[in-house]
Amino acid sequence: xxxxxxxxxxxxxxxxxxxxxxxxxxxxxxxxxxxxxxxxxxxxxxxxxxxxxxxxxxxxxxxxxxxxxxxxxxxxxxxxxxxxxxxxxxxxxxxxxxxxxxxxxxxxxxxxxxxxxxxxxxxxxxxxxxxxxxxxxxxxxxxxxxxxxxxxxxxxxxxxxxxxxxxxxxxxxxxxxxxxxxxxxxxxxxxxxxxxxxxxxxxxxxxxxxxxxxxxxxxxxxxxxxxxxxxxxxxxxxxxxxxxxxxxxxxxxxxxxxxxxxxxxxxxxxxxxxxxxxxxxxxxxxxxxxxxxxxxxxxxxxxxxxxxxxxxxxxxxxxxxxxxxxxxxxxxxxxxxxxxxxxxxxxxxxxxxxxxxxxxxxxxxxxxxxxxxxxxxxxxxxxxxxxxxxxxxxxxxxx
Length: 399
Known about the structure:
Layout: E1 2-8, E2 13-19, H1 24-30, E3 38-43, E4 49-52, E5 66-71, H2 77-80, E6 84-88, E7 95-103, E8 105-114, H3 116-134, E9 139-143, H4 148-164, E10 169-175, H5 183-195, E11 199-203, H6 205-212, H7 218-229, H8 234-253, E12 257-259, H9 264-276, E13 286-289, E14 292-295, H10 303-307, H11 311-320, H12 330-345, H13 349-360, E15 368-372, E16 377-380, H14 385-396
Parallel strand pairs: 1-5, 6-8, 9-10, 9-12, 10-11, 12-14
Antiparallel strand pairs: 1-2, 3-4, 3-5, 7-8, 13-14, 15-16
Helix pairs in contact: 3-4, 9-12, 9-13
């Protein structure tokens, strides 16, 4: 059953037939309208206008009353929300791309369906452009997990070297450790590297211990890390080990460049956390660790587009996480939620935000400084002295 409501702005009044099972808030969200931009009103039989909250179900409002959702700002929604949509369809699509045409006219939208081949081409073109602008070394170390993001690097980097830098060499690496890096992820990464004739090394638990010269087992380090710093700090452990392996491979391979699969929402989450806590964000899409460069060729690409390149691999990766994984911190959950919300609020809003932050903090990024070469520990300038000392003592036990 549906019922008419009116969405009213300073420039127009729009009548909508909407399901009565929804709240007024849910109705606004269906049309991608922010709920804090509207106030609900009803006009009663006596002509009186009464304000109402948005959590009321439409079916609970007297049928004789008119329902008005009034915009509380003097804005023209026609200029910024699509009034006309052009759909470009293909057979067997797996994702869509949106593009808004805005200006001094009604907003128009183009929705383009894509398959995995189109997704790969888009990512490859962006990576090639990034590499041309930012990579100088003849050898690049590449961390790939077997997930949707980093896997796209293999084909894209190979395309770049084939077309623009024939002498460029890649060494991809994948880590395995139960439960955070499943062996199936390494299998997927190996399949891709073999397909594109890229060198690939798999480090299992023992190989990581030997390569990093650990004093005790990696599994013991992992368990004590979680016990000491919290069961929800798994991602911090993973980031530390991946970076250590990558930088040591750089030294062995006599190169100063390594590459990881940071995507748009990864960096948005990182930026949000820094700014919310009054801190300068770390530099992107190239981040210096003394004389070593961390390259982020996927920095401006949404995760959904990256997953579209190898949807089967991406699904397998997510399914492996469903049972027994440690939770992340609530702060991490929040910033990733917000990071993915940016582009849902408005098309490509996240990218515009990142470009603005990049300009704002140019030559004034948050600083990283290596504390001790032995532990390969880089310290953010805002690190707390007491907790830092605790971490150093802990790391000396294992490295």
